């Protein structure tokens, strides 16, 4: 059964968009959380980039006493190896893939689409991008980690091996410790992906220097 397309907060350029950034939020947030950063990126007016900030479905979260909130998957424990619920990750990755396919059908090729995610959203980005069947423009994985890294070698698709993957993390992150992000980075590199790693003096958030670096990176991969 095909799920209905994810609802999104949409930021469209003045001219017809020829590129798209799909940005996935973290646990308990919504598409509204990151939407205000678009003007902060100060992208040149000549770049016709559409930003989509989808809302994750609401679901009960085990570590929060079963409280329902927007989440891409359940978190059953804070254990490093089993933090992300694989079934939930795969279901959300499929929904995000449908969103990417919808952009392709609208006339924006996969090679002009960036998949970005923060925290839980980054988990989905790192799960979907290596398994996606078409070459993307780039992937951003911010303050995040990887679901079941041992599965990647057997499930990976080579088509995005050369795709730039920007991975960044806060050195004082107490929600997703920096070692988890670095482990995900090393897994991507060991599997032949074109990933870069950068840390910032921050907690589980984004900072101005990171936004500046994201802007430079987006201008490069969507040049």
UniProtKB/TrEMBL annotation:
Residues 13-221 form the Phospholipase/carboxylesterase/thioesterase domain. InterPro entries: AB_hydrolase_fold, LYPA1-2/EST-like, PLipase/COase/thioEstase. Signal peptide: none annotated. The keyword Hydrolase applies. It holds the Pfam family Abhydrolase_2. Keywords: Hydrolase. GO terms for molecular function: hydrolase activity. Belongs to the AB hydrolase superfamily. AB hydrolase 2 family. This is Alpha/beta fold hydrolase.
